[in-house]
Structure formats: structure tokens, C-alpha cells
Amino acid sequence: MNRLLIFGLGYCGLAIGASARAQGISVSGTRRDGADGAIAFDAAEPAIRSATHLLSTAAPDASGDPVLARYAGAIASAPALRWIGYLSSTAVYGDRDGGWVDEDTPAAPSQARGQRRLDAEAAWTGFADRCAVDIFRLAGIYGPGRSAFDDLLAGRGRRMIKPGHKFGRIHRDDITRAVVAAMRQDRVGGGRVLNLADDEPAESAAVVTEAAALLGVEAPPEVAFETARPAMSAMALSFWSENRKIASAKTKAALGIEWLYPSYREGLRATLVEQRGDGLA
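The structure assignment produced for this chain is given below.
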């Protein structure tokens, strides 16, 4: 029996767990407080010892990777462990002035959050001498309950205009598909980088315009980036300060998949169908 332990049953972790379970994999996962039937974060040693597969969705903070800070030794000695996955971020590539990067492009983070991610990647890859390790570098995550529809429905939508600023996205269901495909591959050891980004980087305003059209509402007004900049949060400013396009052809070839939603257009349509079915839109 394959046994997957997921550190962090959040937006992506829950979806990945459900998909893995549907394919016959035994799944357990952690939450900080152990709510909703999850394992409390500080009580995960038995699950680590029995896991054949381990996925971490936890982001590092200024103190480093929280999972490794607590469980590096237990993971290193886990007797059945064959595969580790870590959900990282394309922030490790830093600002590329709008240029393309792929899985072989050297990381060059330009901000502290990107450097923290790169440090965490290196720490997780340290287990590659004893099991397979996959580092998933995720572009902007969207899907039901987490998309341009949410701001439009709440009356907060706006079309930010910053010419030439395009970025990649990845639907939650494509993240799930890629992670489960990777963990099911028969690999003895070694580390690899996998980029999870759709095939069409696009400006934020284009995505909002498409979302408004799908909802059948008027697109919100355009707002120039420089006009909005003084009121932006530090996190928003960090996002807009970097400009890169992410290629994922090598990842799709390595996993033998194509994206369910190769652009934001297909992904938004599927998201709206699901949200309407759940009564969210």
C-alpha cells in the first residue's frame, strides 16, 4: 500500500489528497491544530515512519522551512519513504525583465521570499540520495474560490494596467494532476525541478476582462499601475516588481501529461462551472 503524508491540508493539499485517494493511495495530512480529522503538526512522527510518499505544501518563513525544522531527522530515517515532493514557487527565478525561464534556468531570486524558497528547495533536495525528490515551482495559483471571479463578485475588481507585465498561472486541478503523476512514477532517487505554469502568460487585466465576460458583467475600470502603487501592500508591490514568463514544456514531457487548462480562458470557464455548482457564483 502506498501511503502519502501531506504536510499542510490547505487549498492545494486537500485537492491533491483527494485525487491520490481516488487512485488507491492511502492519504493522511497535517494541520497545525489537527482539526477536521487531520494529524496535529506536532504529532506527525508515526505518519512519517509509515509514509512511502511525502508532500510538503508549507511555505518557509524568516526562520526557514517549518517542516524540516521540526522533522528533518525523522524524514531522513523514515524506512519506507520513496518519494518527496515540495511545492515551491517560481519566485526563485527572480525578475527577468519579461523574459522566459524554463526548468534548466538557474535560479536567481531578487527578493527575500524567493531566496527563502530557494533555501528550502536545497534543503529538501538533500534527501535525493535516498529517495526521489521533486521540486514543483508553482506559478500563480487559481481555481474555485481563488480567482478573478472573487473580486468581481465582491465588487472589488479592477483591471491593473502595466504594459508588458505578463505572468503565468496554474489551475489547482493541473497542480493536482502533475503532483499525482510525479509521485506515481517509478524513480529510485535523485532530484528534479518541475515548473507548473500554463502555456499562455498573460497580463492581469486580460484575465479580469475574460472573467467579467464569463460572468456577464461589465469589466471594471482600468487602473494604471503607477496610480495604484502608493496604496499597495508590500506583498502586492513585490509581485508587480518582477516580470518573467515560465515555460513548462519539459515538465509536461517528463510527466507524460498536458494541462487540462492550457490558458486562463479554459481554466476560468471550468472554475465558474464549479463555483456555480457549489453555489459560490
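Interim note for the steering committee: Residues 65 and 78 are 19 Å apart (CA to CA). Residues 112-125 form the longest helix (14 residues).
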